[in-house]
Each structure stands twice: as structure tokens, then as C-alpha cells.
């Protein structure tokens, strides 16, 4: 096996320094301040379904990486994972174990064997319900890993609006640096874009300095046109990230939805000059899956969107499969999933 450190020159030349895994500061890019609601832009937005499906269907056959290059891509993906536990049976101990895993997502012997000893490799964030924000903040103290809280009546988003705002404020008060809100899907399905914009502006204001990720619940929005329009409205209202799903819908992240949202992000940057992050969530459980999302990100938005300040992956079991793939890269043998527990 060629050591990743000795491979770095060729890998970085080919992939734009992809092997570099040190975290960028969270304020690396100016924060999206939002803009006034431009209904003309929203209503003029269309999505070509057949072209979108054709584009994503050809991706796995066109893009592939092997050996050291693949290991570098997977290490980068690992640093972008929002390690998540959003279950009814969550406990403080489970959250603490998840935080410990976020701080040390790979065994030291694997890191050394990959030639990355001395590099700071952590997960992107921990994502929990409000109930566990303070627990996670305490467990991660001094690590630099942010805590993200799901909010606004997650996952359905149907609690009264004033309670949604108070929930955001409570999570920020407990130390959450990121808030993953859910939009009211009814506003999208009925075309009430002003209501969606006003709702999102209130959420952004309640977050203060905490960054806000707008969960569109794309599986509930029915059409890619709705996904594109909702993406634009949330960015106009000041979303720092747009996110596909809660993970609780019947259909969660897909490559077609991803392409639609990435092109909305690109259009928004071209119009305003501000970069908005992207977070696919739900159903991304294998290393093969995440590579396709990374390829699409790089092709559509560029190298900047492969870093954790602009790209996050909502996942839990994904980390275990990345560990297995990296161990196979080092040893030539696959290990059992139970050897890579996440919490």
C-alpha cells in the first residue's frame, strides 16, 4: 500500500488538496445576510426533470476514485459528518458516547497507517434534540466541534410558531452553535412564499450568531420545482445552509434533489455573491453513497464546498462504513460493523 503522506503530492494535484483534513474556521466565508423576497425570481424558477435524472444517472459511471485517492476523499467526508442521534430512546450516556466518537472518529493506528498522524481529524458536528444540547456542549468542551440542535417542532414542524422561536432561543442559550430548523411544508405546497420567507426570517433572527440550516423535507415537497423554489426562498431569508431532510420522511436525500438544490445555491451566489452551505441527510449510509455526493458537489459548486463550513452530511451509520473502507485500504481485509460502533 502506498502511504497517503507520500501519495499526497499526486492526490492534491488531482483533487485540489483534498487530502488536507484540518478544519477551516467556521467563519471562513462571509455569512449569508439574506435579501428581500424576489417573487419574480422564485416563480420563474423551473427544473427540467428528465435532464436532472439523466445527469445524476451518469455520475457513478463517469466519476470514480481508487486506492489512496479514495481514502483521501473518504477522510474528507468524515470531517463533514454531522454525527446524529434523533431517537425517542436517546439518553445522556448515548449522547456522550457519540461526542467521544466525534472527537476520535478513527482509531489512532489507522490514522498513522494512512500517513495522517498529527492531523486533527474530527466529525463536523454533533446533532441532537434540544433536550441533549447542554449534555453535548459539556462533553465536547474544548474540542472545537459545534453542537447542532434540531428545532421548530422537528420533524413535522407543526407546533405553534411562537413555540418554535422559543425552542431555537432555548437551544442557543444552552450552547448550540447551529440550529437545524424544519420549514412548514404547507407554505411550499400552497405556494405561500411570503409566509415561508417570513417564517425563515424569524428563525434566522432567533438564532443570533448561531448558524441556521433550513430543512426542506424534500420528500414531502412532491416536485423538484418546489424544492428549487423553497431553496431560493430560504436562502433569501438568510439560511446559512439548506438541508434535504429530517431523515423521517418516506424519501430523504437523493442525487436528483441534491443537484436541484446545488444549482439553486449556485444561482444564489451568482446573484448575491454569498455562499450557502448544503447538507444532505437521511439514507446516506455507505462510503459509495457519500462519494457520489462529493463528486456532485465538486462538479457543480467547486472545491470550496467540500469543506465542513459549506458541506455537512447528516448521518450515523455512514461513519462505520467509512471506517471499514479505510481499514480495508490499510489491511486488505474488511472488518465487522460491530468493531466500529458509533455510540
UniProtKB/TrEMBL annotation:
UniProt family annotation: Belongs to the DeoC/FbaB aldolase family. DeoC type 2 subfamily.
Enzymatic class: lyase
Domain of life: Bacteria
GO MF: deoxyribose-phosphate aldolase activity
TM regions (residue ranges): none
Entry's EC annotation: 4.1.2.4
Cross-referenced InterPro entries: Aldolase_TIM, DeoC, DeoC/FbaB/LacD_aldolase
Any Pfam family matching the protein: DeoC
Gene3D superfamilies: Aldolase class I
Protein name as catalogued: Deoxyribose-phosphate aldolase
Keywords: Lyase, Plasmid, Schiff base
Organism listed in the record: Nitratireductor thuwali
Pathway entry: Carbohydrate degradation; 2-deoxy-D-ribose 1-phosphate degradation; D-glyceraldehyde 3-phosphate and acetaldehyde from 2-deoxy-alpha-D-ribose 1-phosphate: step 2/2
SUPFAM superfamilies registered for this protein in UniProt: Aldolase (SSF51569)
Catalytic reactions of this protein: 2-deoxy-D-ribose 5-phosphate = D-glyceraldehyde 3-phosphate + acetaldehyde
Amino acid at each position: 500500500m502506498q502511504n497517503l503522506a507520500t501519495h499526497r503530492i499526486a492526490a492534491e494535484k488531482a483533487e485540489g488538496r483534498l487530502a488536507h483534513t484540518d478544519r477551516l474556521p467556521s467563519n471562513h466565508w462571509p455569512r449569508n445576510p439574506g435579501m428581500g423576497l424576489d417573487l419574480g425570481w422564485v416563480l420563474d424558477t423551473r427544473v427540467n426533470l428528465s435532464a436532472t435524472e439523466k445527469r445524476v444517472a451518469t455520475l457513478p459511471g463517469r466519476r470514480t476514485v481508487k486506492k489512496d485517492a479514495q481514502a483521501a476523499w473518504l477522510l474528507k467526508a468524515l470531517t463533514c459528518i454531522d454525527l446524529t442521534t434523533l431517537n425517542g430512546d436517546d439518553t445522556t450516556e448515548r449522547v456522550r458516547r457519540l461526542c467521544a466518537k466525534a472527537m476520535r472518529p478513527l482509531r489512532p493506528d489507522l490514522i498513522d497507517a494512512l500517513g495522517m498522524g498529527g492531523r486533527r481529524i474530527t466529525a463536523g458536528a454533533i446533532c441532537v434534540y434540544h433536550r441533549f444540547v447542554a449534555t453535548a456542549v459539556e462533553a465536547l468542551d474544548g474540542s472545537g466541534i459545534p453542537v447542532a440542535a434540531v428545532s421548530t417542532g422537528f420533524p413535522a414542524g407543526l407546533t405553534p410558531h411562537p413555540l418554535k422561536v422559543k425552542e431555537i432561543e432555548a437551544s442557543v442559550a444552552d450552547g448550540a452553535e447551529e440550529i437545524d430548523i424544519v420549514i412548514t411544508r404547507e407554505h411550499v405546497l400552497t405556494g405561500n412564499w411570503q409566509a415561508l420567507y417570513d417564517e425563515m426570517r424569524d428563525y434566522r433572527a432567533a438564532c443570533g450568531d448561531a448558524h441556521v440550516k433550513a430543512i426542506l423535507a424534500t420528500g414531502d415537497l412532491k416536485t423538484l420545482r418546489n424544492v428549487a423554489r423553497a431553496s431560493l426562498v430560504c436562502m433569501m431569508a438568510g439560511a446559512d445552509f439548506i438541508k434535504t431532510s429530517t431523515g423521517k420522511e418516506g424519501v430523504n436525500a437523493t442525487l436528483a434533489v441534491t443537484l436541484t438544490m446545488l444549482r439553486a445555491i449556485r444561482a444564489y451566489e451568482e446573484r448575491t455573491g454569498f455562499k450557502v452551505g448544503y447538507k444532505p441527510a437521511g439514507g446516506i449510509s455507505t462510503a459509495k453513497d457519500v462519494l457520489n455526493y462529493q463528486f456532485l458537489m465538486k462538479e457543480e459548486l467547486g472545491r470550496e464546498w467540500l469543506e465542513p463550513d459549506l458541506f455537512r452530511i447528516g448521518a450515523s451509520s455512514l461513519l462505520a462504513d467509512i471506517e471499514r473502507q479505510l481499514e480495508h485500504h490499510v489491511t486488505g481485509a474488511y472488518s465487522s460493523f460491530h468493531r466500529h460502533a458509533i455510540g
